[in-house]
Structure formats: structure tokens, C-alpha cells
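Box 3.1 A note on notation
Throughout this textbook, protein chains are presented in two layers. The first layer is the amino acid sequence; the second is a C-alpha cell string describing backbone geometry. Keep the layers aligned when reading.
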Amino acid sequence: MRGPITSLLFERLVRPPHRFGLLSLPLLSFPARFAGPVLVDEDVQLALFVCYELHHRGFDGVDDRWEWNPSLLEVREILEARFEEGLARAVRYPPGSRPGQTRQALAELVAGAVDGPDLAGFLRRQADLEQFREFVAHRSIHDLKETDPHTLAIPRLSDRPRAALAEIQADASGGGRAGRTRSELFGTTMRGLGMDDSYGAHLGRVPAITLAVSNAMSLFGLHRRHLGALLGHLAAVEMTSSASDHLYSLGLRRLGCDEATRRFYDERVRVHDEQTRADAAPEHTSAEAAPEHVRTDAAHEQIAADDMCGGFAARYPSRAGDVLYGAACALALDRLFAEHVMGHWRRGASSLREAGAATRS
């Protein structure tokens, strides 16, 4: 619990589903409660995360019927409205791109993103083992369920964008092979670092900005109106991850970690390297004429930008700006996360919260 909202929410959720009404949550109705930056509001972000988690794996001791309880959805709607306002203040809505130029627009957005602290470079060159464990604890909040929010878009798509997203998610799910999903590989990394890899084990210690990174994915994934933003969010992740993952792997190697502990980060680099080799192959007249290995080795970043986002923007030109907005939100939240972590480390402090720490406003 991090404040009055989560305190009351936790007390209610362990009881059978019931209607408690907004009058029992008076702080939610006062705009002054949200006068501060909502992206770093511990109480709001944890409350929203809890509401979203009921749509994912839920909580032990919480009745599954809470997932669609009208009372809780009313609370979630208010929290979401504040969260969306916070995102809109932090991220300018980009102008839409013309059909056929979505990949270029995404590439320009990634290249022009406001620079933040070089967290990946620090982890590669300087971080000690405890700092790396801190970083992994933060990332566990969404890397242990990485594919889930984005997968929610599959039944809402058709044709080329649907096939592209399904391909990305199938690979993230290990191609149906047990032990090869990205969440399982991340669990191996955590165990290799001597950490508890159980789902949600580090929830109580991560700060609001870490929760906001996860909440943005759930916000976009659970609402059809945010479908374009969800696709753009995933594209930004795919377009920026291979370079940073390479540095994370090198940092773990510097710290003496074995291949199994590094595999989560090496896997995305492998796919990127395969695409680099494929791009160097002779051109073909069409994708259908290309050798099988060239087609199947296509990097996720190309599939996400061209087939998924490009296909969506071509079908819904008026929503091309939504795609870019989702990508911009992903980039902005990652920068704010890096600023939080590096700011604490520069002061010689932990970037995680103390277990059971009270909310500080």
C-alpha cells in the first residue's frame, strides 16, 4: 500500500466482489489529489497496476470476478483518465504520417527521441552486480509478462498487421517450445543472478515510474481505441531493444555471468544479426521469391514497422498519428525510467523502494 487509494483498494479486493461506489473513494473525485505528476504518483500507479493485473494473472486470494466488477471498473476509469492526462502532458501527439511512410516516421521518431542517461552503457561498463540486480528487478514487472498486453491486439486486427503481430508474438513465445519463451528466459536470467524469479516477487519494491512503463502497455492493450498506440508502442520496443540488449549482455559477461544468464538478452541480438545478414543478401523481386531463410530471419523491428504498423496505417490513415503517439510514449517512459535509476545511482542510493515504504508526496 502506498497511499489512501491503494489502502482502500487492497482492503476491498480481499473480500467477495461487491459494489462500494465512488463515495467510498473520496480522494479520487478531487482533482487536487492529482495536482502532482501522475506518472510518478506511487499511489495512483500501483492502484492502476493492480486493476490491470486482474486482467492478466490476478492475485492469490482475490476473487476472479473482480476483473469485470462494475464498481472496480469505475475506479479504474478515473485512474486511467488521470494517467492519460499525464501521458499527454509528457508526450506531444505527433503529426500523422502519409500512407507508405510509417516506417520512416517511426525511424525518425526513434532517432530524434530526447536523449536521456545512458543506462545501457552504464550497465555495460560500470554497474556492479547489485546494481544489475536492481535493474533486473525493475524489468521483471513487465519482462515476466512481456508479450501479454501486446497480444491483446491480435483479435482486433486483420490481414497483414494481424499476421505480423502474430509472428512477433509467436517468436516471443518461443515458437511453442517450453522453456524458450522470453518470460522463461528472463526467469533464467533472474535465477542466474541469485534473484527470486516468481511472478510479481519484486512488485512491492519498484517505484511508480516502473509501474507506469507497464501500465502504459496495459492501457493501450485493453482499449480498442488505443489499438494504433499499442502497435506503435511495440514497434518502438522492437526498434530500440537489440542495441541495448547487446550492451546488457556484455555487462553481464563482464560481471562473470554465464551464457544461460545472458541468453535473454542475446536472443534479440541474434535475430537482429540474422536480419543484418539477410539485408546483405542479393535483392529479390518479391518477398515470395526470396529464399526461405531470408524471409524467416526477418527482424522483428522490420516486421513491426513495415507490416504491422505500416499495414495498420494504410488501412486506417486517420489513425497513423496514434501509432506514432504510442511509440513516443514508449520512448518517453523509458527515458524517465532511466533518469530515475541513474539519478539514484549517482547519489549512491538504491533505485528501488524499501520494502513497505510509505508514500512520499
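Residues 227-254 form the longest helix (28 residues). The CA atoms of residues 63 and 352 lie 30 Å apart.
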